[in-house]
Amino acid sequence: MILLSAVDIVHPMTLGEFILATLIYHDIFDYPLNLQEIRQFLVGKSASAKLVDQQLKKLIDKGKINSLDSYYFLRGRSKLVRIRTSRQKYSKQKMKKARFLAGILKFVPTLKLVAISGALAMENSHKNDDIDLVLVTAKKRLWTTRFLANFLLLPFKRSPSNKKFSNRACLNVFIDESNLQIAPKNIYLAHEICQMKPLWDRDGIYKRFIDANKWVKNFLPNWQPGSWFMVHGSRKARLSTVNCQLSTVENLLRNFQLWYMRPKITTEKIGNTQLFFHPAKTGEWVIDEYYKRLKKLRLTLAS
Known about the structure:
With 303 residues, the chain is an alpha+beta fold. It folds into two domains: 6-81 and 285-302, Arc Repressor Mutant, subunit A (Orthogonal Bundle); 96-280, no CATH class. It has helices spanning 15-27, 35-40, 49-61, 79-105, 118-121, 142-152, 187-195, 205-212, 243-261, 282-302, and strands at residues 65-68, 71-74, 111-116, 131-137, 169-176, 197-202, 232-234, 269-270, 274-276.
């Protein structure tokens, strides 16, 4: 589902309306934005920081939005500033744990990238949230990498049967480097890709990942990887001498894991080069909710 491309808009939207659309999206996550973030994640429109700043002042004067402590949010949602501040504290603690987990995963020679995603990537974690990780693997080593990563992080993973503990590792996404483009192309996944923060990579895989997903610019045309994307490079893993043996191991581990997982598969996406483990269809819900809120916004603006 593609949202807010030029052909989708019934009437030409002004920059102010695009800013409102941007704030609405992040309001779903109880997340106010500062000026730099509004420009970076501006939905469907390219604009300079100066123009965005001018429009923000106009929106405040018109009573469309409010501002507090350099954050902007929809009218009447000032409590989001307090929520963001408290979640930043939780997120800083979880980031330390995430870096620790990423350090352990460096021992997996078939792993090319470790990144955090979800709420933690935006420093918007709840107190009891887990740590969502995205892993990119060497070519044709998807299942070997998943097995090794799960084994190494076994003491730190959340058990599906025991949700008592927080700050546990969730290995939600595995991507083979031979197929880095993420689908479907929609506004939710565009945000997930742009908000993702790599902890370390091998062979410049993060840049390759971003290049393979340039389609995000259709939704977030201003977005650029910023200075907060501090990737700590790792030495290239040398596996050429054991490629034949690894291929055999890969097939065995693939068959074993599929056999083990098959009775439990519900909304998971299991492919040859990409694995997505999400217990709920969060993306579909977010997009549906966003459409509902945009419809209300357009009715308000049209009157």
